[in-house]
Amino acid sequence: MTSTWLQTLSQAESMIPLLGKLGREKSIKVQLAGNTLMADSVTGLMAAFDSYPELDLAQVYQVLEQVLASDNSHTTIELESLIAEADVASVLAAAPKTGSETPVVLYGFGRIGRLLARRMCSLGHTTPGMALAAIVVRKACDDDLTKRASLLKYDSVHGVYDGLVKVDEANQSLIINGSPVKVIYASDPAEVDYQAYGIDNALLVDNTGRWRDHDGLSVHLNRPGIERVVLTAPGKEMKNIVFGVNDNDVTEDDRIVSAASCTTNAITPILSVLEEKYGIVSGHVETVHAYTNDQNLIDNIHKGDRRGRAAGMNMVMTETGAAKAVSKAIPSLEGKLSGSAIRVPVINVSIAVLSLNLKSATSVDDINQLLKNASNSAELTGQIGYSDGADAVSSDFIGSQQAGILDSLSTKVRGNQAILYVWYDNEYGYSCQVVRLMEKLAQANLKKAVLLEDQAA
């Protein structure tokens, strides 16, 4: 170990308490080129700083101290933009001040619901402007709370949750890292009065997939205490948002929005970069997808015919609307993409094969460099990942936080025809995208609340 490395290690260790206080006490998330600096891992900080050797870590420490001493809270701080400013204090003083947070309700607690809870409540991670307040489920058994806690803590795919989960039977709650989360039992959204549980102006995330149109989801919106609704599936009669691509399309009038699908989130950011650089004439998306809970474990009747065959021992041809859904985020691709899917016997991580006809010729090196640069940009670092691992396989991408990761060694180009392979954790990578959208909506709610307070004053 060199003295320089040890010095960097020491500086990274010194930042852990600062980042922890910023998260715990002020709900401030610190980002470096779009990557969140976590307070739970020195090695994680070392890896983040390793990509930016030009950073003066002593200056980074000083900036973090200034942020902690400021009046700012419930927001995201872009570290590189603050470092670039000559007067950090003035920039912080000019930023909006907030002092409250948006409660979040998870309606449904299956694969995505539990991963959203893990992401929101993970040690060292901050979700500015919001806090998990309640989970709504149907009661499954007498010891339902204990079962829910166990499923959150222990996961066959994503491992043991690195946090404390306790059951509070008396208050019908889960205690996640010290924060109480009410568990509300209901079989229909029309049954729940959230204000009766002390929840108001909440952001509700529907993870059930049961309702996918505006009228169906409006039942949530019409309940006391609910301000906005996010659907974790493709939606009809609402905006389908892929964070990093068209999240700026969300307005105050959009009370119900969809976070689209895992596949749409995986491919849309990469397609947006290629469309801007080269232009896309046409293409086909083939997704080789992990089997899902709606398939049968053994052969049985299923409304999806082929999905009725045993998921663990068959490759199953099925359909996907992801290719067509891309145009909801990138209108210029309307009618240009087709798509199909094959479900395969792996429990998590999928790969999308993009076969594209571009408007201009290119090369493997040019496309890979373009997308590598995008993966390092503050705008798309959370959406596009880049892999050049010679022995990379699907399990390597379990737990990936990016929406999609380019397998650069598999890129094929012949003139204006390109084939790209994009890995994605169809559970956790997608959940991270949903949380990013939730953060944006929550912070928009805070800004609205501050504006109303200022007008009243």
TrEMBL record:
**Uppermost EC category:** oxidoreductase
Checking CDD domains in the record gives: GAPDH_I_C, GAPDH_I_N
Can the keyword Transferase be found in this entry's annotation?
A: no
Q: Does the keyword Glycosyltransferase apply?
A: no
What Gene3D superfamilies does its record include? Dihydrodipicolinate Reductase, domain 2 (3.30.360.10), NAD(P)-binding Rossmann-like Domain (3.40.50.720)
Protein EC: 1.2.1.-
Q: Which GO terms describe its biological process?
A: glucose metabolic process
Signal peptide span:
none
Q: Which InterPro entries match?
A: GlycerAld/Erythrose_P_DH (IPR020831), GlycerAld_3-P_DH_AS (IPR020830), GlycerAld_3-P_DH_cat (IPR020829), GlycerAld_3-P_DH_NAD(P)-bd (IPR020828), Glyceraldehyde-3-P_DH_1 (IPR006424), NAD(P)-bd_dom_sf (IPR036291)
Arranged from A to Z, the UniProt key words for this protein are: Oxidoreductase
* Pfam families linked to this entry: Gp_dh_C, Gp_dh_N
Q: Which GO terms describe its molecular function?
A: NAD binding; NADP binding; oxidoreductase activity, acting on the aldehyde or oxo group of donors, NAD or NADP as acceptor
The family note in this entry says: Belongs to the glyceraldehyde-3-phosphate dehydrogenase family.
Q: What is this protein called?
A: Glyceraldehyde-3-phosphate dehydrogenase
Which organism does this sequence originate in? Marinomonas profundimaris
